[in-house]
Amino acid sequence: MTSSSNKLPKVPLNPFEDPVHEISVTMETDVTLDVDERNESAAILSISPSAEPRTVLNTNNAYSRPYLTHDELSLREERLLQKEMELEGRERELHLQSNRLKRQGSKPNNFPSVWPVMYHNIEEEIIESDRTIVRRLFRSWLFTMSTLFLNSITCFLILIAHAIGVNTGATDFGIGLVYTLLIGAASFFLWYRPVYNAFMKEKALYYYIFFIFNGFHIGFQFYMAVGIPGSGSGGLINMISMISDGKILAGVFCIVTSLFWIVGGVLSLYLYNQVQSHYKVQGHTFHEAKTHAVLKIASNSR
């Protein structure tokens, strides 16, 4: 009976491991070979159970990777997200510009037709699946403009009707004219144009701008339907005053104006929900909108 002790050389625990991370492995085994002299063909190879592989990790390596905290990982993730959003936005804008150039070349401003200040083309700038809802949003804005003009006419009729107990006709007419110019422009630039850009560029920030200002717009429509004297509205309360004093023409215009405001408010609510559903389907988040806003402020400050 003979005994031998073998020591295996140091080998990497994982052959694909970075070579600078050394792993020292020491394995000691005691092998005892018993041979029966009476039966030379029978051999028993036994390994001592006390011999167990021992793994020693070299922790003194100067090149070991530093441990990153949760905040550092979050910061890196946010930076990567910002870069990804920048690249996606640039790619989408380049794609839109290339489509414009391929079709008709560089296009001049075409909206509004009486005094063009921007380019507006739903058929070309909005993808086919979103054109229906963008057309409805544009018609909603046109309906708002029509209601504002009708409201101004109604307030003028209230002014010349001189109904008993109504002494705010001049105020209503003046405020109504201001609303026609101010609300018309504000509604276009504060909620229609942002939602147009949202569907064109698919950016979360534009959706949030629409949600905020279109929400105020919906409240304004129902407020105007009430028709408080001196508020610049030919709504329900002014209608009652006109009809009570026999001013039929002014009363009829007040009725129609009130209906326009109510229908416009209901239509705006419906479209608001449609845009919100689209926003959720696209998977946008408030964090994405905040990141886009920071990037936009940073780019404008350069």
From TrEMBL:
Its main location: membrane. InterPro entries: SCAMP (IPR007273). It is a multi-pass membrane protein. Pfam families: SCAMP. It comes from Basidiobolus ranarum. The chain crosses the membrane at residues 141-161, 173-192, 204-228, 248-272. This is Scamp-domain-containing protein. Keywords: Membrane, Transmembrane, Transmembrane helix. The keyword Ligase does not apply. It is found in: Membrane.
